[in-house]
Amino acid sequence: MIRKRLAFLLLTPLLVLLLVACDGDFQANPLGYSFVGQTLVNNQHRTVPVAPSHGKSITHLRPYGIGLLPDAFTAQYGQPLAPSQPPTQLWFKATLDDFPAGSVMIVGFDRSTADSQARANEISYVAGNTHPTTDTQAETIAVSFLPDDAQGPTILHPYSEHANTCLSEVYASATLATLFPAQDFTDASGKLAKTGTITLSLFPHYGRSTTQEGYPEDNHPFGGGPDQPNAVSSFLLTLGTKSYC
């Protein structure tokens, strides 16, 4: 039986971009600085309308974050930016200033098994040029998006320039296990992971520049490695136990 889920209405940009993500040293965030620079720079002063949500109240969820309805994000961050693709993906200014100075957040949604409403199941947070973010600060922001019953983290793999792996951590939440179908939780091989797990991938900071066409980009993978120790360019929260860097 074919499930009528939002993920099947539109192939999520995250999955598409993973097919073309940069190779070489550290893996790039498919929804990171360069992608945002090419997609948003000329479209950040227009917004898109979002239909009101009618989901039920779920205990343990934060005011805005993983598991929340679109309304929770618009209440905190304002109307979604033009690159948004309702109902599966919404873009928001995470700071008052425009990108690339300001930070941007991209939120993915899927239909919840709890109430059949679109609820956030992935978040990419891209730090702006005037908002330098350490790995500790990024972790604090990311944890603020998780349900308050989240346990962890367990280190999936540590930061290592030798092994070309970023710091990735796995959390577990009984609340998330009740919100999304089992097939949303996968491991690195694409097999089912434990329900309720969610992985935080912290992408190292590379030098940043502007292309000849005027698009902001980071210098990954041509910048000779990360340029700021303990600094994060972006982070990605995704259901399951798969790291993206």
Task: Describe the overall structure.
It is a single chain. The protein has one domain. The longest helix is centred in the middle third of the chain and has 10 residues, at 135-144. A hairpin with a 5-residue loop joins strand 7 and strand 8. It has a seven-stranded antiparallel β-sheet with strand order 1-2-3-9-6-5-4. It has a two-stranded antiparallel sheet with strand order 7-8. By secondary structure, the protein is an alpha+beta fold. The model is unreliable at 1-24 (pLDDT under 50). The protein is built from six helices and nine strands. The N and C termini lie far apart (34 Å).
Describe the SSE topology:
Layout: H1 6-9, H2 13-18, H3 33-40, H4 70-77, E1 89-93, E2 104-111, E3 118-126, H5 135-144, E4 151-157, E5 167-172, H6 174-179, E6 197-204, E7 208-210, E8 216-218, E9 232-239
Antiparallel strand pairs: 1-2, 2-3, 3-9, 4-5, 5-6, 6-9, 7-8
Give the tags.
245 residues, alpha+beta, seven-stranded antiparallel β-sheet, two-stranded antiparallel sheet, 17% helix, 23% strand, disordered N terminus
* Computed structural class: alpha+beta
Helix proportion of residues, in percent?
10-25%
- Note the main sheet: 7 strands, antiparallel
Portion in beta strands: 15-25%
The order of strands across the largest sheet is 1-2-3-9-6-5-4
Sequence stretches where pLDDT stays below 50 over 5 or more residues: 1-24
